[in-house]
Each structure stands twice: as structure tokens, then as C-alpha cells.
């Protein structure tokens, strides 16, 4: 991991950081990735033992949806939620120019 | 004077009924300890200002005959669990002034029981840590030895109970965050089956693993709290339907598996293992059959956990943008509002983990890390499912070592991660696990052992746990 790699990630993740810290993170990254890299080995090993089926087939997960209906009264939470926003105008969130 | 250390939920309820002391008298005792000790211990970030109203409501329940066993019981609340009208900050600067607009499912349930929430407690920022040293609001000390960490991320909740600043506590666990602080503070911590307790109103770390978890001095205390919160909730799409929760046959085989190889890795303290062997002997004498078993996949659990957690955390924390709520730093450009709000709002550990998660999920690395981790997670689940056909639980020490000194392991991320070595299999397999005190070291620090049971089988943990408590 180079400083440039970390800069790119910080940019993608929208996190402003000092260069010193990015340098430290680059070092930590190598140690952490070496450690978590075990998962590749383990997945391969499992694959050769025939234990790993396709995740999509064996993972007993399914989506739970609710009816697409309004469950709260109009404006029931609007005020409370808008109060948390740092910058508002006439009931809208205010942001810097996007385009 | 009330002997706070002798209190359990049950005997406190009886004291209330017998008029030995009132709810207010008990709460005042805790508030006195908080006033004297919290500045040093830093278990609480805030003591709530509506305690009087809560007491009044609980007293009325006793008068009106609607009191339950939890009415008037003083709780502390981890800073990532929402209570309407109160700040919930996940111990992060980015949520410093974030006032909850609604009650989390668990708080709503416990409010109905008339519990008293004394305040919110410290934690590692966004629950990222194992020692409560990454909080934006200072470290928390272990009340049993103030030069040591209380564990984490639920270090504040654990210190509040161990330090006589609450009778019981609610924390959360993603990987060890309730069991490890329970171990370090000499308490019982229960990590429930994933989906048993609604995550609605809990600030997310890694959504496929997060679970609200009770903490107390006894197994029975955690059982009572668990039962009061364990219901289906349509606001959490991963909540287990009520009909699936019914266990018809609760008989146990009295067979415990010991994953020997898993316990012989590097970095496991000799004293901890000696205590573990002694705990095993006690169970054998009590009529349990202990069998060495080989579970070859569980050694990968911690690595799998770190891949999934970082990936999920980086996605979950994308919501903090300086626009909708939380800290916002003024700037001319929209990009800078995002980057400066997040850069100054997140602490160091959080920044590092978000970057790691971003890397793991990026094009070209997604398959190598994230998809591999999902596959191995399934391997671990399969392995444990077949193991549980012949066993009630598997047993390990809760943590590989004793509570460490403040400041230790902060510059050694992998060393810190190893705190959760024995915790990870239960989180990845969605199964329940409990940490129970198992004696004290020569230096007076607490030992803890851990039982892990099949999916939905908290009942086994309560049965074996209560028996084990009597043996210690």
C-alpha cells in the first residue's frame, strides 16, 4: 500500500485526512490485509474439500418486504427530523451547489 | 445503606415489594456512586434529566398493581441505543448533538416495564474497538482495577454495573463487544441469536452481526432482560418471526464440546487456560460429559469478521454526510462539506476502518476479500450446525487474556483484534453465546468462560450457565 493508494481511498470515502495519518494507515493496512487475507486461503481450501457451495445457493437469506403503504401520519416526524439537519431553508435541506 | 453488590433483579423486586427500600432510595444510591466515581471511571457520558419522571411512573405501576419484575430496576444504556429526546452519539464527535427522534425497539419495550434509565454510557466510537479507548469522549477505566481497560466496545455499560453505578445494562455486540467487557469486569454478558432482538433504533456498525445484548451480575438477570426484549419487530427485516422462537423440547444432553486446537494458538494466556481447565473439571464433576472436538473452520472466524465488519461499516457510515444530521463543517464546495465533516467528525480508528472497508469493497478486491469471507462464514455455520447435532454447547475462555493496561495494544491493531478471537464464531454463525465469571487470578483480575449454543437456544445457555454459577 502506498500513500497514493490511501489518498485515493480517502477521496472515495470522502474523508479529509492529514498526510501523516495516511502514511500510518498505509503501514497498518499491510498488517491487517495480511491477517484478513487468510479468508482467501480458507475459501479455496473449503472449495477443494467440496464444502463451499455457491454462496447464493447455500445462504438461507431471503428478502422481507412490507406492503408499500404509508404507515405514519403526514408530517408526523417532519419537524423532529428537520430540526436535526445542520442547514435548512423553507422546510428543505440546503446544500452547496451540486452541478 | 443498600449493599449494591448483593442486588439482582429478582431480589431487588422483592425488596421493593417488601418495602425494604423504595425505587427512589435505590436510584439515589446509584446516583451517589456516580457523583463520587464517574469523573474517574467515565462510565457515563450523561446522566439523564428525566429520572424523576421515570421513577414516578414506576411507583405508579407498583401502586396500580401493574408492576413487573423489571419495574423500577436501574439500567444504564449504551450510547448507540436510541431513547427519544436524549442524545445518542455512538461516542463519536460526528453525532455529538444528535438527539434521538424516536425510541429504539428495546427502549420502548423496557419503558413499558417501567425500568429506570439512569443515563448513557461510554463506548468505543461506533463500537469499533475492544477497550473503550477509541471513544471521542475519553477512556473508561475498569472499576476492578483502574489502571486497566474495562474491555469494549461496551466498556461504559460494563463499568457502570461493575462500579455500582447501575444494576444492569444494555449494550450491543457485533463481535465480542458485550462478552469481552463482561469478562474484563467480572460480569455476565449474553450475546443473543442474531434476529432475536430488534435492531430498530440502534446505531449500526455491521448490520449482519449487530445485536443488542444484556449485561448483569447473574445469568438470571440477563435472562430476565432478554425475555423482556425478545419479540418479533416488523421494523427490523432481520427480526425472527415469533412462531420460530418456540422451542418445544428443551431437554439437554449434558454434552459439551471443547475445540482443543482452537485453544492452542499463539497469544493465549497460561493463567487463563489453567482457569479454563479448572472450570472444565468442575463441570465434569457436576455430571457433564466433556469431549474434545475438531472444528477446523472456526480459526478463520476473526479474519472473516474483520472483512465483513469493515465492509459493512464503511457502507453504514456513508450516511454521515454533514447534510442530514450530525456534525457539518461549512465549506464552499459540496465535496469539502462531506470530506471535512467526516474527516473531523470521525476518530482515527473509524477513519482507518472506513478506508479498509472501502478498499475491501472496491473493484478488483471484492471477490478476494468480501466474497471469500461470505463463503467461509457459511463454512463455519455448516460446521457448527453439524457439531450441534451431538452437543449442547461448545466451551472456551471468553477472552484469551486478562484485562490489559490502559494504553496497551493501541498501536497494535492485530493484538487488539485478538481480544475477540473466541467471540467471533458465535457472531458469524448467528448463534447465542454467554460469558460467565469463573474465578479470579492471583492478582485479583476476573476470569471468564464462555458457552455457545445452537441457533435460537438461549435456553441452553441459561440452564448450563445457572448450574455453572453455582460451581464457581
UniProtKB/TrEMBL annotation, chain A:
Pfam families for this protein: GatC
Gene3D superfamilies: Glu-tRNAGln amidotransferase C subunit, N-terminal domain
SUPFAM superfamilies: Glu-tRNAGln amidotransferase C subunit
Signal peptide: none
One GO-annotated biological process of the protein: regulation of translational fidelity
Annotated InterPro entries: Asp/Glu-ADT_sf_sub_c, GatC
NCBIfam families documented for this protein: gatC
The name this protein goes by in its record: Aspartyl/glutamyl-tRNA(Asn/Gln) amidotransferase subunit C
Source organism of this protein record: Candidatus Nomurabacteria bacterium GW2011_GWE1_35_16
From TrEMBL, chain B:
Domain (Amidase) ranges: 25-459
Gene Ontology molecular function, alphabetical: ATP binding; glutaminyl-tRNA synthase (glutamine-hydrolyzing) activity; transferase activity
GO biological process: translation
Catalytic activity: L-glutamyl-tRNA(Gln) + L-glutamine + ATP + H2O = L-glutaminyl-tRNA(Gln) + L-glutamate + ADP + phosphate + H(+)
Active-site residues from the entry: 78 (charge relay system), 153 (charge relay system), 177 (acyl-ester intermediate)
GO CC terms in record: glutamyl-tRNA(Gln) amidotransferase complex
Enzyme's top EC category: ligase
Signal sequence coordinates: none
Classification via Pfam families: Amidase (PF01425)
Documented EC number(s): 6.3.5.7
Keyword set, alphabetical order: ATP-binding, Ligase, Nucleotide-binding, Protein biosynthesis, Transferase
Family in the record: Belongs to the amidase family. GatA subfamily.
Subunit structure: Heterotrimer of A, B and C subunits.
Chain's role: Allows the formation of correctly charged Gln-tRNA(Gln) through the transamidation of misacylated Glu-tRNA(Gln) in organisms which lack glutaminyl-tRNA synthetase. The reaction takes place in the presence of glutamine and ATP through an activated gamma-phospho-Glu-tRNA(Gln).
Name assigned to this protein: Glutamyl-tRNA(Gln) amidotransferase subunit A
The gene coding this protein: gatA
Amino acid at each position: 500500500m502506498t500513500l497514493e493508494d490511501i489518498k485515493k481511498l480517502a477521496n472515495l470515502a470522502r474523508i479529509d485526512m492529514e498526510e501523516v495519518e495516511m502514511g500510518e494507515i498505509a503501514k497498518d493496512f499491510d498488517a491487517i490485509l495480511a491477517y484478513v487475507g487468510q479468508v482467501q486461503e480458507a475459501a479455496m481450501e473449503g472449495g477443494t474439500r467440496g464444502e463451499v457451495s455457491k454462496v447464493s445457493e447455500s445462504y438461507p437469506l431471503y428478502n422481507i418486504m412490507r406492503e408499500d403503504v404509508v404507515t405514519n401520519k403526514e408530517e408526523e416526524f417532519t419537524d423532529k427530523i428537520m430540526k436535526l439537519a445542520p442547514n435548512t431553508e423553507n422546510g428543505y435541506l440546503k446544500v452547496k451547489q451540486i452541478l | 445503606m443498600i449493599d449494591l453488590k448483593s442486588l439482582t433483579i429478582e431480589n431487588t423486586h422483592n425488596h421493593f415489594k417488601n418495602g425494604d427500600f423504595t425505587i427512589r432510595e435505590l436510584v439515589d444510591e446509584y446516583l451517589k456512586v456516580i457523583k463520587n466515581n464517574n469523573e474517574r471511571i467515565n462510565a457515563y457520558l450523561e446522566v439523564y434529566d428525566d429520572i424523576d419522571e421515570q421513577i414516578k411512573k414506576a411507583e405508579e405501576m407498583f401502586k396500580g398493581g401493574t408492576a413487573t419484575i423489571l419495574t423500577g430496576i436501574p439500567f444504564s444504556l449504551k450510547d448507540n441505543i436510541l431513547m427519544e429526546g436524549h442524545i445518542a452519539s455512538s461516542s463519536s464527535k460526528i453525532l455529538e448533538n444528535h438527539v434521538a427522534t424516536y425510541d429504539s425497539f428495546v427502549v420502548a419495550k423496557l419503558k413499558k416495564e417501567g425500568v429506570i434509565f439512569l443515563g448513557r454510557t461510554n463506548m468505543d466510537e461506533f463500537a469499533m474497538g475492544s477497550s473503550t479507548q477509541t471513544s471521542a469522549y475519553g477512556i473508561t477505566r475498569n472499576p476492578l482495577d483502574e489502571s486497566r481497560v474495562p474491555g469494549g466496545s461496551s466498556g461504559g455499560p460494563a463499568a457502570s454495573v461493575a462500579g455500582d453505578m447501575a444494576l444492569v445494562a444494555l449494550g450491543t455486540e457485533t463481535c465480542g463487544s458485550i462478552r469481552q467487557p463482561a469478562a474484563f469486569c467480572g460480569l455476565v454478558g449474553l450475546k443473543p441469536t442474531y434476529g432475536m432482538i430488534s435492531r430498530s433504533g440502534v446505531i449500526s456498525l455491521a448490520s449482519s452481526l449487530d445485536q443488542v445484548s444484556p449485561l448483569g451480575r447473574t445469568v438470571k438477570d440477563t435472562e430476565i432482560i432478554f425475555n423482556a426484549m425478545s419479540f418479533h419487530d416488523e421494523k427490523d427485516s432481520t427480526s425472527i418471526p415469533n412462531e420460530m422462537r418456540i422451542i418445544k423440547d428443551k431437554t439437554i444432553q449434558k454434552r459439551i464440546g471443547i475445540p482443543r486446537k482452537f485453544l492452542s494458538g499463539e497469544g493465549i494466556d497460561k493463567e487463563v487456560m489453567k482457569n479454563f481447565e479448572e472450570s472444565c473439571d468442575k463441570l465434569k464433576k457436576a455430571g457433564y460429559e466433556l469431549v474434545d472436538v475438531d472444528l477446523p473452520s472456526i480459526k478463520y472466524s476473526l479474519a472473516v469478521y474483520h472483512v465483513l465488519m469493515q465492509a459493512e461499516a464503511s457502507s453504514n457510515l456513508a450516511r454521515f454526510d454533514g447534510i442530514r444530521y450530525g456534525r457539518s463543517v461549512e465549506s464552499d464546495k459540496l465535496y469539502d462539506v462531506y470530506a471535512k465533516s467526516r474527516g473531523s467528525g470521525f476518530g482515527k480508528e473509524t477513519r482507518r476502518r472506513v478506508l479498509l472497508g472501502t478498499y475491501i469493497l472496491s473493484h478488483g478486491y471484492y471477490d478476494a476479500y468480501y466474497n471469500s469471507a461470505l463463503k467461509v462464514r457459511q463454512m463455519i455455520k455448516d460446521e457448527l450446525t453439524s457439531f450441534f447435532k451431538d452437543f449442547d454447547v461448545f466451551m472456551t475462555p471468553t477472552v484469551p487474556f486478562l484485562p490489559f493496561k490502559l494504553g496497551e495494544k493501541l498501536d497494535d491493531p492485530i493484538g487488539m483484534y485478538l481480544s475477540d478471537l473466541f467471540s467471533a464464531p458465535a457472531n458469524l454463525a448467528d448463534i447465542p453465546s454467554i460469558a460467565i465469571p469463573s474465578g479470579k487470578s492471583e492478582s485479583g483480575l476476573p476470569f471468564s468462560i464462555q458457552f455457545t449454543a445452537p441457533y435460537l437456544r438461549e435456553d441452553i445457555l441459561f440452564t448450563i450457565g445457572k448450574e455453572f454459577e453455582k460451581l464457581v
